[in-house]
Amino acid sequence: MLLNKSGDANVRPTGWRRGGAEMRCKSLGMAGKGAGAYKAGLVLAVALLLLTFWGGSVRAQSSGQEGGSIVQLTGPCGTQPLTIAAMQWPSSIVLAYIHAQILSDRLGCAVEVVPGDLASSISSMSTTGQPAIVPEMWVTRVAAIWNSTLEAGRVRSVAPTFAGGDFEGWYLPAHVVEAEPELNRADQLAAYGAKLNAAGIRPQFISCPADWACSVVNANLLKAYGLSEVFEIVEPGNRFEMDTLIAQAVSRAQPVVFYYWQPNSVLAQFDFKALDMGPYDAEKFTCLANRDCSNPETSSFVPETVFIAVSDRMSTEALAVMRYLQRATMPFDEMNRLLAEQAESGKSFEEVAAQFVRERETVWHKWVEEL
Q1: How far is it, in rounded angstroms, from Cα 11 to Cα 127?
Q2: What's the start-to-end Cα distance of the chain, in Å?
Q3: Mind listing the pLDDT tens digit for each residue in 45-56?
Q4: What is the CATH number of the domain that holds 222?
């Protein structure tokens, strides 16, 4: 609800295909007893060859013609090429290319990365079974359409997309952590700020732009923690100014606390520490998200539900792919590092994904074990 994706690059990937194609062998329908025997032997030989190459199962069906047959091949990737949806923000695009390359290289799947967005991808999965995979489904953003499609049995959630931290919160830069090693929780900020105030210093709190929903939550949280008069509250005009202010505070070693979210390149470009915001309370957060909240109380940010989603056919047609996806949760730190690499180097998202597969097998090798 609060991570404003409009701040990230609005990039749509081009079409991308890897691996072999779906295979289907049909007899030529030659007439005559001799031709039928020849044809049956030929079809059997081709079927066995395909089975050996693909590692799948072969099933013969009657073609309705004397001596004729259709051999259908079902491999570890299902009966259709896999389509993987890349949404309009960087982490989703990188994930789509990572999964595409690994599934192509390790399972021999025919894979295509296609552009998508949350709502239309769910609708398409429901009606056509495509895309087959959505690596980064933010369910709380499209709860109504997701729930109805899930209840209809057309989609499934497989595993969390990310692990290793909260999606959004308040952070301290390394120089503040070094100066205040015991500062770990948001409820300790009042004492930290008061100490600086006594020395004639007013620390900064860098919030998000005023037209983002998180600015309301941050303002109310600052009131709830008693920080409104202790900190200088800065609301940047846009995402670029927000990142610039944070970078300046770090380079000048200024006392600062800031709001941010992940996955994001900024959190990998500098050394930051997340503050413990305490437990999440839905009733308290409802007030925090209201500009007219008269009595704000502390709560952590809403725990986002973000997971790998698949169309329902995958659970019966592509069991090896399902086993892979069930393990393919990406650590936040790793994705932040990938996004920083892309931002600093100017490489394409596909190039960054290929570099991850090539250099970071220690991260993804457990995704493909014993498939």
Answers
A1: 26
A2: 36
A3: 444 344 333 433
A4: 3.40.190.100
Establish how many alpha carbons lie within 13 A of residue 293's alpha carbon, considering only the half-sphere containing its beta carbon.
22
CATH code, domain carrying 99: 3.40.190.10
The answer, yes or no, to whether residue 92 has pLDDT greater than 80, is yes
Token code pair at residue 149: 């499609």
3-state secondary structure of 263: coil
**245 contacts: CB under 8 Å, gap ≥ 6:** 206, 234, 236, 258
pLDDT in tens, 208-253: 999 999 999 999 999 999 999 999 999 999 999 999 999 999 999 9
**Residues 88, 119 share a domain:** yes
Indicate the length of the chain as a whole number.
371
- As a whole number of angstroms, the distance between CA 157 and CA 160 comes to 8
Note the Cα 135 to chain centre separation in Å: 5
Let me know: does 277 contact 351? Beta carbons within 8 Å.
no
Q: Which residue has the tokens 């770990």?
A: 184
Q: What is the mean pLDDT of residues 273-292?
A: 96
Domain residues for 65?
A: 24-74
Which residue, of 74, 99, 116, is where some domain finishes?
Answer: 74
Longest dimension (CA), the chain: 102
* 184 residue type, one letter: N
Distance CA 259, CA 168 (A): 8
Listed in sequence order, the residues at least 6 apart from 102 whose beta carbon sits closer than 8 Å to its beta carbon are 324, 357, 364, 367, 368
pLDDT tier, 74 (very low <50, low <70, confident <90, very high otherwise): low
CA atoms within 13 A on the CB side of 318: 27
Which secondary structure element, helix H or strand E, spans residue 90, and what is its range?
Answer: helix 90-107
Count CA atoms within 13 Å of residue 64 on its CB side: 0
Residue ranges of E strands in the chain: 16-18, 24-26, 57-62, 69-74, 82-86, 111-115, 133-138, 155-160, 162-163, 168-173, 204-206, 232-234, 256-261, 272-274, 306-311, 330-331
Structural tokens at position 140: 């709380």
**Residue of 121, 123, 124, 151 whose CA lies nearest to 137:** 121
- For residue 25, the model assigns a pLDDT of 29
The answer to whether the bond into 263 is cis (omega within 30° of 0) is: yes
